[in-house]
Amino acid sequence: MPLAQVLQTLPPVSPSAPVSRQVDYMRISVTDRCNERCLYCLPEQFQDWSRREEILTYEEILAIVATAVERGFKYFRVTGGEPLVRRDISCFLRKLIGMPGVESVQLSTNGTLLPEMAEELYEAGLRRLNISLDALDPIRYREITHGDIKPVLAGIRVARAIGFTSIKLNTVLIRHKNETEIWPLAEFAASLQIPVRFIELMPVSLTEMLTEENFLPVGEVMAMLSERDKLIPQDIKMGHGPAKYYWLKKTGALVGFIGALTNLHFCEACNKVRLTADGHLRPCLGQHGEYDLKPGLRPSVNQAVLRARLDQALTEKPPEHAFRDNWQPRRIMTAIGG
Q1: What is the CA radius of gyration of the chain?
Q2: CA atoms 246, 242, 27, 126: torsion sign
Q3: Boundaries of every domain in the chain
Q4: What is the pTM of this model?
Q5: CB atoms within 10 A of CB 44
Q6: Whole-number percent of the chain with pLDDT over 90
Q7: Is 56 left (phi over 0), alpha (psi -120 to 50) or beta?
Q8: Digit-coded pLDDT (tens) for 94-148
Q9: CATH T-level assignment (fold) for domain 3-14+23-336
Q10: Rounded Cα gap, residues 204 and 230, in angstroms
Q11: Which residues contact 91 (CB under 8 A, 6 or more apart)?
């Protein structure tokens, strides 16, 4: 049976029941451009980038953040595309981190530019990094990302040496691409005393990626790790996302698992919305609904309009994603934000 049909047989969380969630976390995409082309994120031939005038200015993003803080948002993650390819990103981060009411700012990156930029990011006040690392083997890494792993590994070590207080590695699971990398990644994370999270593949950009051949569930990865070491559940919360953490007793690795498709309760505690680089608020990655915030920004900032659009998005945030229901993406992941 095709994977899409298998996933459709899974029962929904509770489609008609109200879900009580405190939405206080916004992921902010500052660009839809990226200097890599990961198989699950950016189609190889894609060239339909947003025009420069469509992308929000930093000042417009900060106006949205100010409104979001009024509505109880505390936690923010800056993403892309690859956020470090946007000019003056460190200056923007400094302003974002210094805004009243902003309690936490994280940055998601593929790590390729960290060797040159880690120090200026730290000086801007940034202390929390999420770094994509889908393989350690250079050939495997290139097959998945079309990039070079050397600067990524160098960037991780530079960030570690500078003193970032939170560094997490993110690995998207793809069968026949990186299942042999699971154990090396756990050992690598343990050697640096930083956690690694294993994330189930989602059809965020290409429906054809989510096949039975490609899909590697987190449950299977947990079983693979358990064959070599004992997984000890950890009652901890690292950051503001949905990962469930375990300690590998002998290896000393802290590993997290994010099972968006196989965990039927994945959406019950969702606390996030996404701001796209072109100014749309997306309450759910796995639903198509978006709310255009530009009318509250152009030709000038109108806080009343921003509040109304944000409130509408929060009110209409769906109870669960639709990835298990033969999902058909309309926007690629780099356009939505990580």
Answers
A1: 19
A2: negative
A3: 3-14+23-336
A4: 0.90
A5: 8
A6: 67
A7: beta
A8: 999 999 999 999 999 999 999 999 999 999 999 999 999 999 999 999 999 999 9
A9: TIM Barrel (3.20.20)
A10: 33
A11: 58, 124
